[in-house]
Write a structure and sequence with these properties.
Layout lengths: L8 E4 L8 E8 L4 E4 L4 E6 L9 E6 L1 E3 L3 E3 L10 E5 L5 E5 L7
Antiparallel strand pairs: 1-2, 1-7, 2-3, 3-6, 4-5, 8-9
Length: 103
């Protein structure tokens, strides 16, 4: 089970966007990469693939390593580490290490 999931709010720990917050758009499991909204924005030159399709310079989010982001707790809006806890019904849930509440 991952510590970070899609639509989680995270804070960037290292790099040019250090300290910025954003929501996770995409996760690449086998390469341990995440795409965060508004973070690591790169410019791409896009060629029109069909007639009538727009081409030009497009800005889009790039991938960053998952170890460079930390989950922001939805309870108190502060960065937190994540632990796992197994409930009585056998379900595994994420728990904030600081507040001890489920995420």
């Amino acid at each position: 089970m991952l510590r970070i999931k899609k639509n989680d709010t995270v804070i960037v720990l290292t790099g040019k966007d250090k300290g910025k917050r954003g929501t996770v758009l995409e996760i690449v499991l086998d390469k341990n990469l995440v795409k965060v909204k508004g973070i690591a924005v790169v410019t791409k030159h896009v060629k029109a693939k069909r007639q009538g399709e727009n081409s030009g310079i497009v800005k889009q989010e790039g991938y960053i390593n998952a170890s460079n982001v930390m989950l922001v707790s939805p309870v108190d809006n502060q960065p937190c580490r994540v632990n796992f806890k197994t409930l009585e019904d056998g379900k595994k849930v994420r728990v904030s290490n600081r507040t001890q509440q489920t995420i």
